[in-house]
From TrEMBL:
UniProt DNA-binding region: 38-57
Keywords: DNA-binding
Keyword flag DNA-binding: yes
Residue stretches making up the HTH tetR-type domain: 15-75
SUPFAM superfamilies named among the record's database cross-references: Homeodomain-like
Gene3D superfamilies (UniProt xref): Homeodomain-like, Tetracycline Repressor, domain 2
Annotated source species: Oleiphilus messinensis
GO molecular function: DNA binding
Superkingdom assignment: Bacteria
Name used for this protein in its record: Transcriptional regulator
Alphabetized InterPro entries for the sequence: Homeodomain-like_sf (IPR009057), HTH_TetR (IPR001647), HTH_transcr_repressor_FabR (IPR050692)
UniProt keyword annotation of Cell inner membrane present: no
Length: 226
């Protein structure tokens, strides 16, 4: 028998229902917090029968962890694509911040959840968020090192630098969500300036270390000559 056409197949329907559950949980959590939600509230908001929830998640913690994992993967993919179009260390910074800001503005409910659970959520949620941030930091450290080396402006401790930058961006994001629209551009520009200061300091440390290495090499050569 030929497969009917024109509508979503079973796998697509399952993805749609799963997405509707996640979206419903995020909408409700932005109002009352994730810990205050019940399974029935979420399924009612999603427009599905309560037992259908278990076709997708084992419990509410599993749902929250899935949301965190998906957010981390999506953000890393967006930042990687953004970096591919840049050619200098500074443009990597600005493009990354702008990409993060755009994703945040388009997914405010998701970030309300992430920011709230990062500091006040269950241990499982806090660890999951820190793990995803760790992946972003590692990716960004590699990108910063490559971009800086490509323009002959190496930076010291790229992993530490990436850690500072990512946390700066997340802190700015939390502030953006809690303020009015008129101040959002100011917050973004301030974050970019702060990140430039971090980058400048990392470049100065790298330059200082390079000069020290040169001096030590010259001293060693002088000692050998004597």
């Amino acid at each position: 028998m030929a497969k009917p056409s024109g509508g979503p197949d079973r796998a697509e329907k399952k993805r749609m229902v799963r997405r509707s559950i996640c979206d419903a949980a995020l909408r409700l959590s932005s109002i009352k917090g994730f810990s205050g939600l019940s399974l029935r509230e979420i399924t009612r908001e999603a427009g599905i029968a309560a037992p259908s929830f278990y076709n997708h998640f084992t419990d509410l913690e599993d749902l929250g962890l899935a949301i965190i994992d998906e957010a981390g993967v999506t953000l890393r993919q967006l930042l990687r694509r953004a970096r591919k179009t840049t050619t200098s260390g500074e443009s990597v910074v600005r493009r990354s911040v702008e990409t993060f800001d755009s994703y945040l503005r388009n997914n405010a409910e998701l970030f309300h959840f992430l920011f709230a659970e990062r500091v006040g959520g269950t241990r499982a949620f806090r660890l999951a968020i820190e793990r995803e941030m760790g992946h972003i930091i590692e990716d960004y450290a590699e990108a910063l090192a490559e971009a800086s080396a490509s323009i002959n402006r190496p930076i010291a401790h790229p992993l530490y630098v990436a850690d500072l930058i990512v946390n700066c961006a997340f802190n700015a994001g939390a502030e953006v969500l809690s303020t009015d629209e008129s101040k959002r551009n100011e917050i973004g520009e301030r974050a970019i300036t702060q990140i430039r200061i971090i980058m400048y300091g990392a470049e100065m440390l790298a330059a200082k270390a390079s000069r020290r290495d040169i001096n030590e090499s010259e001293n060693a050569l002088s000692s050998d000559a004597e």
